[in-house]
Amino acid sequence: MDSCWDSPVEATSDEAALSKLSAIAKGYYKDDFMKVLVGGNRTSKRSPLINRGYFARVAARDMVVKRFLEVTEGKCQIVSLGAGSDTAYFRLKAENQQPLLFAEIDLPAVVIRKMKIISGNQGLLDLIGITREELLDSAKTQLCVKTNDYVLASADLRKVEDFDAVLKNKCGLDLDLPTLFISECVLVYLEPSDSANVISWISSTFKSAAMFVYEQIRPDDAFGQVMMRNLESRGCPLKGLKEHISTDAQINRFESRGWTKCECLDMNNIYYKCIDQNIRSSAEKLEIFDEFEEWHLMQAHYCVVLGKKDEEDGILTNLKLQY
């Protein structure tokens, strides 16, 4: 991808990783791998508002991943788009809960950086099941690392043909296996036509698929306009938000492109109605918190989408946001 798109978006990914590191340090959730994958000895301290926001984001995704693994009994694949410093594979593998294949896709510079970090950490190499020499050789010849249950590769999401070739050839995805795609603030940076191509490709390629999307909504009110201007000033315009401004628009985005069912809730509803109450209560005891008005306003401008493409009464029937 061209540099005018890459660098600012990579920077937002790095900031998100540091925010997660802050939430982890405060005890919002357990993650033994984030500090390693962020690289160096960097630390971060965010406000209680930001810590709780990232806790909710991670809890929502972990909830969907856990339910997907349960309904498929682990006989499935997961693809993380714009994976960045994502630790999900390592956390699942450490608990012996990983799917048959976990693929991470990102920009070339991000993939190279992650390969370098993994190559210098024996614990990560052991989890993946590869030697340092094997990883470096694969990285040099293919810009891809592949083991029995893990793939790290680069693809341009704006070019569906490239994306198709990478997932089929480099990643070796089984198109007949249930596959969960994860997009956390990734598709929203693409032009609507480009993200539509990705969504359509998945529904037309896989027999059984689900997609978890976490991204911004409601750009038209005062908070939304400030949010848009802030990211535009940093060279990261939310191009996808022009068309997908509401939960209803997000649902239509999927159901009009071959997906059999789609749910979308803003993060207030996800937080209070979907995330396990015990997990939420524990998190709420960690820091003094009095920013409730700003919290609810911020959460109203983010959503979770869960799209499903499956046969009637298929294996993903019981995969839902709300029960």
Question: What would your notes on this structure say?
Answer:
With about 325 residues, the protein is an alpha/beta fold. Strand 1, helix 4 and strand 2 (about 100-105) form a beta-alpha-beta unit. The N and C termini lie far apart (about 40 Å). The protein has helices at about 5-25, 35-40, 50-70, 90-95, 110-120, 120-130, 130-140, 160-170, 190-205, 220-235, 245-255, 265-275, 275-285, 290-300, and strands at about 75-80, 100-105, 145, 150-155, 180-185, 210-215, 260-265, 300-310. It has an eight-stranded mixed sheet, with helices on both faces.
- How many H/I helices? 14
Q: Distance between the terminal alpha carbons, to the nearest Å?
A: 40 Å
Instruction: Please tell me the overall pLDDT.
Output: 93
Residue runs with pLDDT of under 50 for 5 or more positions: 1-5
What is the rounded Rg?
A: 19 Å
> Per DSSP, what share of the residues sits in E-state strands of 2 or more residues?
5-15%
Which strand order does the major sheet show? 3-4-2-1-5-6-8-7
Helix fraction, binned, reads: 40-55%
List the helices and strands and how they pair.
Elements: H1 3-25, H2 34-38, H3 48-72, E1 77-81, H4 88-94, E2 101-106, H5 108-119, H6 122-128, H7 132-142, E3 144-146, E4 150-154, H8 160-170, E5 179-184, H9 192-205, E6 209-216, H10 222-233, H11 247-255, E7 261-266, H12 267-274, H13 277-284, H14 292-299, E8 302-309
Parallel strand pairs: 1-2, 1-5, 2-4, 5-6
Antiparallel strand pairs: 3-4, 6-8, 7-8
Helix pairs in contact: 1-3, 5-7
